[in-house]
Amino acid sequence: MKLMNEEITEEFIERMTDRVIGRLEDKLDELDISLDFIGAVLANTDAASLAGHQKKQGRMHVHRPASRSGAPEDGE
Description:
The chain is an all-alpha fold. The chain is 58% helix and 0% strand. The chain is built from two helices and no strands. The radius of gyration is 21 Å and the shape is rod-shaped.
């Protein structure tokens, strides 16, 4: 990155830091969506359902497939 007549000031560093953090957040969001799809495949469910369970019960929620009677085994 070439600096053109702009001094490296505290404001410049803060602005660059904010840009880098913003880009990282965007990439982490993309990664999270990809992992939701992978998790859905492994849990034999759809990504929207998995995301709903995570939003309701937290990221570490373990999705259990429905029992033979059709009711989910974890009481949902």
